[in-house]
Amino acid sequence: MTASLQQGYDKRLMLFSGRANPELAERIAGQLGVDLGPVTLKTFSNDEMYCRFEESIRGADVFLVQPMCANPAAGVNANDALLELLVMVDAAVGASAHRVIAVTPWYGYSRQDKKSAPREPISARMVARTLEAVGVDRVLTMDLHAGQLQGFFGIPVDHMTALMMLADHFASLDDDLVVVAPDAGRVKLNKQFATRM
């Protein structure tokens, strides 16, 4: 395997992992036939994040795999995962990456997509604005809490779903399954899921 994958337009794809889910990043790298790029990530004693790409990423399309969720084994909570992604993006932009793509299967703060009461933030929008401000060129995510979150971005968002794959998996287990929605907002999606099964 190689550390980068040549692209048809004289650019290379480089894949790096944050600490939120390195196993996922390894599996993606395996599917692409590339090695994960070397990156040093650490948290200083004062809880500040540090990132350094250990090889040149100049001119590369840099994919950063970092769900915005906790990884207790790595000592990373959801907020750390988000901040670590932002630090990685800033380092990639500063190192002259051609494009920076955030691969965030779990988009943090996605449930905070509207105000439920006065004087509340719309945190999902704030995360989108922050990702754009730090230099993300594109976001790949899965099964957003609400699809309209894509509208918070001024950059391309690839919103993928695992619905069909999960429905096929559960359909193969047992004929006597019950699909339950956690709230009224998920009823439509759960009907699609049940129909697919």
TrEMBL record:
Pfam family, one: Pribosyltran_N
Enzyme class: transferase
Domain of life the protein comes from: Bacteria
GO CC annotations on file: cytoplasm; ribose phosphate diphosphokinase complex
Catalytic activity: D-ribose 5-phosphate + ATP = 5-phospho-alpha-D-ribose 1-diphosphate + AMP + H(+)
Keywords, ordered alphabetically: ATP-binding, Kinase, Magnesium, Metal-binding, Nucleotide biosynthesis, Nucleotide-binding, Transferase
Residue intervals of the Ribose-phosphate pyrophosphokinase N-terminal domain: 13-135
EC number: 2.7.6.1
InterPro entries attached to this UniProt entry: Pribosyltran_N, PRTase-like, Rib-P_diPkinase
Keyword Membrane: no
Gene Ontology biological process: 5-phosphoribose 1-diphosphate biosynthetic process; purine nucleotide biosynthetic process
GO molecular function ontology, one term from the record: magnesium ion binding
PANTHER family: RIBOSE-PHOSPHATE DIPHOSPHOKINASE FAMILY MEMBER, RIBOSE-PHOSPHATE PYROPHOSPHOKINASE 2
Listed name of the protein: ribose-phosphate diphosphokinase
Source species: Pseudonocardia oroxyli
